[in-house]
Structures are given as C-alpha cells and as structure tokens.
Amino acid sequence: MIAVKAGNIIKVDELIVEDNRVVHTTDSVGQTGLHWSALRGDINMLRLLVTIGIEIDHKDSAHRTALYLASYKNHTAIVEYLLDKEANTSIKTL
C-alpha cells in the first residue's frame, strides 16, 4: 500500500511479481490502491491495478469507490477509464 500511495509504479510492479495479493490490501479506512490512485489522478498506477484484477467497485468505510473519488477530484481521464471498465455508477456513499 505504501508504494501505491507514493506512486512508485516500479516498486508496485515488483511486489505484484512476488505476490499479486498485495494490491488487494486496504488502509485504515478501507481504501485500496485503486482509491489512492484515483485520488491522486495517477492513471498509470490505476491501469496497472485494474489490469492485475483489483476490484474496481470496492467501497471504503464511507462506501466511496475509486470512481466516486476520481469524480470528486475532477480527474476526468480516470473517470472515463473506470466507466470504460464498467465501474458501477449507482453505488451510494454514506
């Protein structure tokens, strides 16, 4: 999770090779690397995580998805990418 939050795509790629379950971990509020990539606008990291099979509609403790966070931060390219990958648009936040 630290490498994803830092945007270190090389380290994340190395970790995935060792054990791809690492990308499915969550932080203290239930956010995955996908959430963090969406918040930061890191489309390259987000694409990598989606490619290896991270759950695209994972909800954090407030029921926010990566799609919601990308939209909130006005990261249009990420919103478009997630919609293209069929992210659920009907999930309600708390």
Protein traits:
single chain, 94 residues, mainly alpha, Serine Threonine Protein Phosphatase 5, Tetratricopeptide repeat, 0% strand, globular
Explain how this protein is built.
This protein is mostly helical and 94 residues long. The protein has one domain: Ankyrin repeat-containing domain (Serine Threonine Protein Phosphatase 5, Tetratricopeptide repeat, Alpha Horseshoe), CATH 1.25.40. Helix content is 50%, strand content 0%. The protein has 6 helices and no strands. It has helices at 2-5, 9-18, 33-40, 43-51, 66-72, 76-84. α3 (33-40) runs antiparallel to α4, α3 packs parallel to α5 and α5 (66-72) runs antiparallel to α6. The longest helix has 10 residues, at 9-18. The protein is globular, with a radius of gyration of 12 Å. It starts with a helix and ends in a 10-residue tail after the last helix. The model has no long low-confidence stretch (mean pLDDT 90).
Average per-residue pLDDT, rounded, comes to 90
CATH superfamily: Ankyrin repeat-containing domain
Range of strand content: under 5%
Element-level helix/strand string: HHHHHH
Short structural description:
This protein is mostly helical and 94 residues long. 50% of the residues lie in helices and 0% in strands. The mean pLDDT is 90.
